[in-house]
């Protein structure tokens, strides 16, 4: 596991150096290069792909007998 | 069909090479021997299995390939098996391509050296004691080592072009949105783009014909009629205008620059017109890029909370990934002041405007890909900013969303160096033609 405190110190240094390298510029922000031409999937009835559900469940760290995910409250909020 | 051998024969030959050399190179994470041989047998049964019939691929381990692990080379997703095919994989399969296995990479594509993978570093097949570049390290190395015909990588700030340059192979990062990102595990969603790596430009054009095009599953994918890069590939570049930016040259090792300039002269001898272009804010591209990446990466990693799949990222990831998460978290908490991310997005507008203005006067911009030669494997680069500097010449194309290709230019002290050619949005054809012209001239001994 990485050394969290060391990394936080390094992160502060990197952020300070990178942000100092940028001056001021008065322009609109660019979020997506193609944001004006978004496409979406056509509406339709929901599909059920049992193979996908089965393979997704195989990836879950914890499942109960009924096939539900067991959700543990994250350690960082305890 | 690729050559006179059957698909099964071709795959078997590649599998033999992978089994022999991969333990040393470490370019491939998982080999799907049964799957690829079965698919090859199916291809052999069909008279016309598609335009990529029998072409053998490795796929970067951050692209979902149904039934194989998509690990991002991280402990976080080491046991995650893809339940579906990414859009690019479906298109490859429909065109008769064969997936041999998944390729090693920098953890979560966060690196430019190929050293941060939880599966261990990849060696550069062209110079075994040097890094292969990254983050698509295994993709470029698997092509260079002769493990496959081609590979798919992803490029957020140079991750296809950098390893292609170091390993002496060809690659192209398409225009942002030209290739669907559906099924790609994000590094930074507004910059990521999937693209091919191969040993020659003709193969790149063939692959791009198949994987490019709008996809309703990717809201940022763009429409561009019928593409036929392979049919229109032309080594005659008379009249092509090639821009050269002093700002890219100033940042580059003089030995690399000499090699690159000799290829720009070759383009001129082949009929191109060389023009100088000005890009005064390119020095700001690197901080602009990284400040954007930190925030978008932090956002992208919030789903790795260890509940539905994988392990909680902060508990198991490597140092560089954790550093990026910490900076992204800090910026996201402080962003009400618009001090970092908003400023980066404003500079992104400036850099994009400058590059597009320069490309109004020329068809392509040619220059170096990486400013320095790859360091020796294991050489400790402690300072993250030194590592980030590898990307200084490649990040502008991602910030502007423009396409950029790399073709081998030669070797400096035995180490391959790649010529980078950037083009207008959806200007892939001009880039491929310039790369093809260089390649054809070099094959003829020029």
Quick rundown:
By secondary structure, chain A is mainly α. Chain A is 35% helix and 0% strand.
Main attributes of the structure:
heterodimer; A: 78 residues; mainly alpha; 35% helix; B: 446 residues; alpha/beta; Amidase signature (AS) enzymes; 11-stranded mixed sheet; 15 helices; globular
**Over the alpha carbons, how many angstroms does the gyration radius of chain B reach?**
20 Å
CATH superfamily of chain B: Amidase signature (AS) domain
Order of helices and strands of chain A: HH
- Can you name the CATH architecture of chain B? Alpha-Beta Complex
What portion of residues of chain B is helical?
25-40%
Quaternary form: heterodimer
Order of helices and strands of chain B: HEHEHEHEHEEHEHHEHHHHEHHEEH
What is the residue-mean pLDDT of chain B, rounded to a whole number? 95
Gap between N and C termini of chain B: 31 Å
Structural class of chain B: alpha/beta
Question: Residue ranges of chain B: pLDDT <50 for 5 or more in a row?
Answer: none
Largest sheet of chain A: none
Please name the CATH topology of chain B.
Amidase signature (AS) enzymes
Report on the structure:
The complex is a heterodimer of chains A (78) and B (446). By secondary structure, chain A is mainly α. With 446 residues, chain B is an alpha/beta fold. Chain B has one domain: Alpha-Beta Complex (Amidase signature (AS) enzymes), CATH 3.90.1300.10. In chain B, 39% of the residues lie in helices and 14% in strands. Chain B has 15 helices and 11 strands. In chain B, strands 1-3-2-4-6-5-10-11-9-7-8 form an 11-stranded mixed sheet, sandwiched between helices. Chain B starts with 6 loop residues before the first helix and ends with a helix. The model of chain B has no long low-confidence stretch (mean pLDDT 95). Chains A and B meet through α1 and α2 of A and α9, α10, α11 and α12 of B.
Note the topology.
The complex is a heterodimer of chains A (78) and B (446).
Chain A: H1 4-20, H2 50-59
Chain B: H1 7-25, E1 28-31, H2 33-45, E2 56-60, H3 87-94, E3 98-103, H4 137-144, E4 150-155, H5 161-167, E5 170-173, E6 193-198, H6 201-211, E7 241-245, H7 246-250, H8 254-269, E8 273-277, H9 285-301, H10 313-316, H11 319-334, H12 341-361, E9 364-368, H13 384-388, H14 395-400, E10 404-412, E11 415-423, H15 428-443
Parallel strand pairs in B: 2-3, 2-4, 7-8, 7-9
Antiparallel strand pairs in B: 1-3, 4-6, 5-6, 5-10, 9-11, 10-11
């Amino acid at each position: 596991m990485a050394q969290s405190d060391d990394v936080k110190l390094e992160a502060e240094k990197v952020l300070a150096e990178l942000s100092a390298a940028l001056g001021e510029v008065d322009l609109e922000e660019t979020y997506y290069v193609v944001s004006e031409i978004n496409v979406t999937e056509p509406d339709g009835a929901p599909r059920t792909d049992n193979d996908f559900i089965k393979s997704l469940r195989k990836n879950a760290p914890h499942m109960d007998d009924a096939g539900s995910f067991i959700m543990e409250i994250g350690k960082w909020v305890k | 069909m690729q050559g006179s051998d059957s698909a099964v024969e071709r795959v078997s030959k590649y599998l033999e090479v992978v089994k022999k050399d991969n333990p040393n190179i470490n370019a491939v994470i998982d080999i799907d021997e049964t799957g690829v041989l079965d698919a090859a047998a199916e291809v052999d049964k069909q008279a016309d299995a598609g335009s990529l019939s029998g072409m053998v691929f490795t796929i970067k381990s951050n692209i979902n390939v149904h039934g194989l692990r998509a690990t991002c080379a991280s402990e976080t997703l080491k046991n995650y098996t893809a339940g579906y095919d990414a859009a690019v994989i479906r298109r490859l399969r429909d065109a008769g391509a064969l997936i041999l296995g998944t390729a090693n990479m920098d953890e979560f594509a966060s690196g430019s050296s190929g050293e941060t993978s939880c599966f261990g570093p990849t060696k550069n097949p062209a110079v075994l004691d040097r890094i292969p570049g990254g983050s698509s390290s295994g993709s470029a190395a698997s092509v260079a080592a002769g493990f496959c015909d081609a590979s798919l990588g992803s490029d957020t700030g140079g991750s296809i072009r950098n390893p292609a340059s170091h390993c002496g192979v060809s690659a192209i990062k398409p225009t942002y949105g030209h290739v669907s990102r559906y099924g790609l595990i994000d590094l930074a969603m507004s910059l990521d783009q999937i693209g091919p790596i191969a040993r020659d430009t003709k193969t790149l054009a063939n692959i791009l014909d198949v994987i490019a095009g709008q996809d309703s599953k990717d809201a940022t994918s763009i429409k561009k009629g019928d593409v036929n890069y392979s049919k229109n590939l032309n080594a005659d570049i008379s009249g092509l205008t090639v821009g050269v930016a002093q700002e890219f040259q100033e940042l580059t090792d003089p030995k690399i620059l000499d090699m690159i300039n000799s290829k720009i002269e070759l383009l001129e001898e082949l009929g191109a017109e060389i023009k100088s272009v000005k890009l005064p804010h390119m020095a700001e591209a690197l901080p602009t890029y990284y400040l954007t990446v930190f925030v978008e990466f932090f956002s992208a990693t919030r789903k790795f909370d260890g509940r539905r799949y994988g392990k909680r990222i902060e508990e198991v990831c490597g140092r560089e990934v954790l550093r990026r998460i910490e900076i992204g978290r800090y910026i996201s908490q402080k962003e009400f002041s618009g001090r970092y991310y908003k400023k980066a997005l404003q500079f992104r507008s400036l850099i994009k405007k400058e590059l597009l203005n320069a490309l109004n006067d020329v068809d392509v911009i040619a220059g170096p890909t990486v400013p320095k030669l790859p360091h020796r494997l294991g050489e400790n680069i402690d300072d993250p900013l030194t590592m980030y500097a590898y990307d200084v010449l490649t990040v502008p194309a991602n910030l502007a969303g423009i396409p950029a290709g790399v073709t081998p230019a030669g070797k400096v002290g035995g180490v391959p160096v790649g010529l980078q050619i950037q083009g207008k949005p959806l200007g892939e054809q001009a880039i491929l033609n310039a790369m093809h012209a260089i390649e054809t001239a070099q094959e003829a001994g020029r």
